[in-house]
Design goal:
The protein is an all-alpha fold and 78 residues long. It has a single domain, classed as 434 Repressor (Amino-terminal Domain) (Orthogonal Bundle). Helices cover 63% and strands 0% of the residues. Helix 1 packs across helix 3 and helix 2 packs across helix 3. It starts with a helix and ends in a 9-residue tail after the last helix. 15% of the residues are buried.
């Protein structure tokens, strides 16, 4: 779920994979691994990703139930 949401939000923000890799200070192959599901970011990198994409970590991790319990509409990110 993380990779799919990461890719979706990157495209929505009109960023390329190389741009995202630069924004979060990782190698392009590493970033591609995040989107492809073969790699997991560190906590610090996850925070940078959420900041760059202007979404919550909970959204990226698929914690929709938690967000909805707080009254946050998950649809606002999509």
């Amino acid at each position: 779920m993380f990779g799919k949401r990461l890719r979706s939000m990157r495209i929505k923000r009109q960023y390329t994979q190389p741009q995202m890799a630069d924004f979060i200070d990782v190698a392009l192959r590493t970033y591609q691994g995040y989107e492809g599901g073969s790699r997991c970011p560190s906590f610090e990198t996850l925070v940078r990703i959420a900041d760059v994409l202007d979404v919550s970590i909970d959204y990226l991790m698929g914690r929709d139930d938690f967000l909805q319990s707080l009254g946050v509409s998950v649809d606002e990110y999509q």
